[in-house]
Amino acid sequence: MLRYLPFLLVLALWIYAFIDCLNTPEEEVRGLPKVVWVIIILLFGEVLVGPVAWLVAGRNRRGPAGGSTPSEWHRNHRTEFVAPDDNPEFLKSLKAENRKDEALLKDWEADLRRREEELKRREEQSRSDEES
To answer: Could you tell me the pTM of the whole model?
Structure first.
């Protein structure tokens, strides 16, 4: 089993570099066009030259300027973490959910009472029909 390990590691690196190259946007590729990088990875993958070249020189590995989030809105609206029990918006949402749940529970209870009364009426009617 251990004799296959180097082959599997080379194959894993080859596949990783190939998929990473395909998923990288064109504007983040350095040096050569993306299609050329794909060909290099595929042609020189068995000797690790292609995948290693891609990982070292092919892709811009720096994070985006101004933060790691993708949108401008997120970069400009950073907030500190607030515990849920200190967050007024979260507490308001809990109260709203509780009101909805209570209303639903009242509806279910009313429906249950109505069904129980209907069953009692049917039982009384069936008893009166049996007696007559």
So the answer is: 0.46
